[in-house]
Each structure stands twice: as structure tokens, then as C-alpha cells.
Write a structure and sequence with these properties.
295 residues, alpha/beta
């Protein structure tokens, strides 16, 4: 039995779908059973609980031999990152040890390192999570994906709407920082392979798609493959920070925050080695095909 946290999220939906496509037994930890209705139709068990409720983690873990941990938050106060990501992962690992889990597959993020951990709370929490997983005593695999693109969530549908509806395409800063988007279904295959292969245990893999592009090039690709003819406009980072300062005060999930701008400014978001490609040998969806498949 594979226990998946974050199964109702964008990435989680793709991971769970891949696991069930391989006819693997899956149990999803969900805060609200109603939100797990689609997962149930795929044949998943649902366990009502929350990372901040250790008792519910123990109950959800009963009979599980594998954990895929996907839960994270991208914005919030420092205490929320500590409570949900750091303390929650601590309690999840404790429950996994008690249940005798034999493999813990964790989703970190590309850009997470000892050098970046003090940049923003998100990187700090991801770095802490990696240390927790590696010191847990449970055989593990850690994946650090770049931007995840998909037709049904993440940032790509927003990019498509911007390209289609705005008179000019806004690009933050000079647009020269590079990214390496990976298709959500490809990411899901990495996770599914990572739960079984013995040669990947105890390793950290950086994941990206087959194409590395600058933000300027990304928008050029997007508009070309979608048949959109609109000019681009570079927006100074300082102006975007002012905008983020205002929008952060609004309720809900804010797509652009000052922390995200710091992460964008910090440098390229590309893999530093080809370990994942050489080890897993998965065919990866090229960037232009990713952009064509977007809703």
C-alpha cells in the first residue's frame, strides 16, 4: 500500500493517476473526504487527516509500505512553514518508522540547497525536509523538480491566458534567467519508478524537462506554438515587488509574492547534472509539445 500526501493537488493528481495506471494500491491522505472524490473513482482509499494531526497520520499509515510525500505551501508566515512542512514532515516520518515503511519518496524543489535555505521560508522548509528525510533511517528518494507544467494546473494555464488576453506579454526583469520545465505526467513517472527501484534508494535527483530556455525564450516559444502575435514588455523587478506587497494582503492563493520574486532573482532554475536522465532513461515531453498541450 502506497500512502500519498498531497494527492488532491495539481502534481498529486498526476502522481496518483500514474500509480493507479500501474494497478498499484494507493491510499490518499485528504483533509476533506469530499475533495478526494475523484481519487476514489480511480480506486484509491481515502484517509481523512492532516499533517498537523499526528494521530491521523498514524491511522493513515496503518498497513502502508511506501510513502510519497508531496505536501508543501508556497506562501505564508514563517510559523506556517514550520508547522505544516517541517513539523508535519517530522510527524509523518515518525508514523512511517512506526509502521515499518520501506521507502519514503519526497518531493523537494529545484533550487533547494544549503546556500539558498536562508533566501525565503519555502527554501528553508524544503531544505529542512530534505535533512529530515535523509536522517530518518527510512530508505528514501528525494526529487527536486523544476517548474512543473500541465494542462490542468500549475502556472502554465495562467501563462497561456496572459499570452492570449493581454495586449503585451509581461516578462519580469530582463528575462534572461533560465528554466527547465518538466511535464507533470513525466514527473509522475519518476515518482512511480522511484518507489520500486533499488538502485535509486538514498539518492537525490534534480528533475527538469529536455529543454532549457530563458524566460524570454519561453514566451517566444509559447506565442509561436499557440499562434499568438503580441509584443513582450519587460517589467522592472522593483515595480513587481511593489505590486506583490499589495497583492500579498489579499485573501487566497496569490500567484506572485515577494518571496517568489526573490527566488526568480536568485538565478537559473535548471538541473546541475544529468543523473536523473541517465538513471531512469524516461522519454520526456519536449517544451513545445508541453506548450501545445496546455488548456
Amino acid at each position: 500500500m502506497i500512502l500519498v500526501t498531497g494527492g488532491t493537488g495539481f502534481v498529486g493528481g498526476h502522481v496518483v493517476h500514474e500509480l493507479r495506471g500501474r494497478d498499484l494500491a494507493v491510499r490518499c491522505l485528504v483533509r476533506d473526504l469530499r475533495r478526494g472524490a475523484k481519487l476514489a473513482t480511480w480506486g484509491c482509499e481515502l484517509a481523512e487527516g492532516d499533517l498537523t494531526d499526528p494521530a491521523s497520520l498514524l491511522a493513515a499509515m496503518a498497513g502502508a509500505d511506501t510513502v510519497i510525500h508531496l505536501v508543501a505551501i508556497r506562501q505564508g508566515k514563517g510559523g506556517e512553514f514550520r508547522r505544516i512542512m517541517v513539523e508535519g514532515t517530522r510527524d509523518l516520518l515518525a508514523a512511517a518508522r512506526e509502521a515499518g515503511v520501506g521507502r519514503f519518496v519526497h518531493m523537494s524543489a529545484l533550487g533547494t540547497s544549503e546556500e539558498t535555505k536562508d533566501l525565503v521560508p519555502y527554501y528553508w522548509a524544503k531544505w529542512e525536509n530534505e535533512q529530515q528525510v535523509q536522517s530518518s533511517g527510512i530508505p528514501f528518494v528525494i526529487f527536486r523538480p523544476s517548474f512543473v507544467f500541465g494542462p490542468d494546473g500549475g502556472i502554465l494555464p495562467t501563462f497561456v491566458k496572459l499570452a492570449k488576453l493581454t495586449p503585451v506579454t509581461p516578462i519580469i526583469g530582463n528575462g534572461r534567467q533560465r528554466i527547465q520545465p518538466i511535464w507533470a505526467d513525466d514527473l509522475a513517472k519518476y515518482f512511480a519508478d522511484g518507489i520500486e527501484r533499488e538502485d535509486v534508494a538514498g539518492r537525490v535527483f534534480e528533475l527538469g524537462g529536455p529543454d532549457v530556455v530563458s524566460w524570454n525564450e519561453l514566451w517566444e516559444h509559447l506565442k509561436r506554438v499557440r499562434g499568438i502575435r503580441r509584443p513582450s514588455l519587460h517589467i522592472p523587478v522593483a515595480l513587481m515587488k511593489v505590486n506583490a506587497l499589495l497583492t500579498e494582503r489579499l485573501p487566497g492563493d496569490i500567484p506572485l509574492t515577494r518571496d517568489l520574486l526573490k527566488m526568480l532573482e536568485s538565478g537559473d532554475n535548471v538541473v546541475s547534472d544529468d543523473e536523473a536522465v541517465r538513471t531512469f532513461s524516461l522519454p520526456l515531453v519536449p517544451l513545445d509539445d508541453q506548450l501545445r498541450r496546455a488548456a
